## 1
Amino acid sequence: MAPMMGTMPMGGMPMMGMGMGNMPGNMAPMGGNMPPMGSNMPMGGMNGMSGMSGMGGMGGMGGMGGMGGMGGMGGMGMPMMGMPMMGGMNPMAMMNMMMNMAMGAQEEEDKVAELPPEPTDPRVKEICRHFGIDDKICEKLNKAMKTREDFDEDMQVLWHIMDKGTKNNKKAVDVMLVKIRELNNGTFIGKDLLDPEIKDFAWKYNLDDQLLHRLIKTMKKRGKHKSQDLKDMDERIGNAKHPSGLLVRMLEGLEENGKMPPAPGWLMQSHGSARREPAEKDRKKSRSRSRR
């Protein structure tokens, strides 16, 4: 009967029940002729149970050390090795998931890249076409103009500036790039240049952008005195060889103390000499008559 016990259907597991040495001696026999598994069972019979040799490897069921001797459990090795990977993530499944995520992100980027550009305002198209500005710069202008509250007025000013620049032999694209930069950083002159008095004064003396900005800024502070200030400045710098330099001095005076500084001596002398010239001619004529 011992060989039968060694071949119990536990995959070669040798006599799991035999480790239960404390089983009561009066336990009913498991087979018809099988003697009771009590203390009266002769120990010599244990020698015939070859499968019990694995009991030595079991080292007592308390520590389960004898599991190494369970030859039938060897087949469980491969499934057991795979269990940790299933608990975290199978490497192949993880790789497939990462590839799918990367492909999804790429598809989103492709969709964004395929979006058509924003439509260009017809007024922007017109000025760019008139001055031969290419499409790339035209798109930059369109984007900059979208931030402006006074779109129409700013477009009028831009037309004036572009026209003035090209008449002064400046490249239209260079002028446009400067104005786009001013639009983006908030320094564009804008509708203030539409004031006819300021515009006429600036165009008459061909003021550069820096001086034009300063003139507009100062005149806005002058309020009701603006018109008279422009007339006085026009009279003083009208005959000057370098009107821009003289204008800077006048604007400085208005900004510091609200008064226009006196005209330089050379300017007063030029006006005085012009007034005295007829009198000197008359005196010369009278002398020539007296000699006769």
## 2
Amino acid sequence: MTPRTRLLGARFRAIRGSAPPPTGACCPGAPPACPVSTASRMVTVAPPQGTSCPTSCSLIRCPGMGGHDPPTPPSHLGVVLSKLSAAGKVKKIFAHCLDTINGGGIFAIGNVVQPKVKTTPLVPNMPHYNVNLKSIDVGGTALKLPSHMFDTGEKKGTIIDSGTTLTYLPEIVYKEIMLAVFAKHKDITFHNVQEFLCFQYVGRVDDDFPKITFHFENDLPLNVYPHDYFFENGDNLYCVGFQNGGLQSKDGKGMVLLGDLVLSNKLVVYDLENQVIGWIEYNCSSSIKIKDEQTGATYTVDAHNISSGRRFHWQKHLAVLLVTMVYSYLIIF
């Protein structure tokens, strides 16, 4: 029987656009050194000279990646992983599991040994979590897209980013997906709620709309269900969680940016040691097992339930999405 751990989390807000989080919203009175959990113990890591603990309240949020801004590297997490790895305490591996059913989820730093996760290579020499997208299916039928849509390079390619709420697609990809998703619902009338495309619908969207599958190198699929790419914004009002990247910043027009609405209810593992990333559909209210690199022992990391809601609740003005995340304090008991 493996030792148990208790996970203490903190709520954070994912702010759309480039607006900074409220001062002290999640890290009030942060000490000059940041407590970060590893597989078996709490470790205090001094932040870089001249900086403090992250006030964005997320170790994996990329500053500037909400809404319209170009991607920027996840600086705080990189610093934490580098320091812990240099000290021999952990490998450069972290994982998250965002629970949109019960709220909360799992965040852990270290080698995930259970469940096993299939991976795809990260694109070398790129500043973000770039991966090679091979094809896209809607309802089991492959979309006919120009081959250059799957190229990787500057200002093009596919990025996995849990710091971004929505999913942004090149205009041609966005239009093809939307046509396929609504092919059997030509009677639906759309209207805009701020920047979102919304529609009235009575019925179960999971029963009546198709699954979308993104296929990546090494035969790794990412299944996105209707409850992932639609979100409720009132009684029988659904909005689309995909955005037309052609209407966003110039730098993002040719990029596929997959945010946390499509990564939710999946365990996502970022293995920077082996330069791969992977995921598996998972019950994020359960637990995962992490290996302690110093002792070889295996520890269980439990989920932390923050919200009593069953789904994400979008505020009336859609300015702030309250999501739940784990800010990584592990206490052995």
## 3
Amino acid sequence: DLFEIDSAGTIGFHTGNPPDSRMREAAARRGIAMTGRARQVRASDLDEFDLILTMDEENFADVTGLATRNGEADDRRARIVRFCDFCERH
């Protein structure tokens, strides 16, 4: 595999639930099986993944908070970006 893609929330509200049925249907139409379960983002994700995309400022703040040690941002912080950072017009 060339890519490993995962999804996690900043709160554990849906932990353990399957993906939204609408999303599973849309993925299935494209030949993609979504078999995972919802989970909460964890600090180890910052070591495991090369890129962490966040949806909004609140998520960005929550995830960048995981990249802090002894009150200082660490090098993992550079892997966390906002989806909108890739938007040319928004």
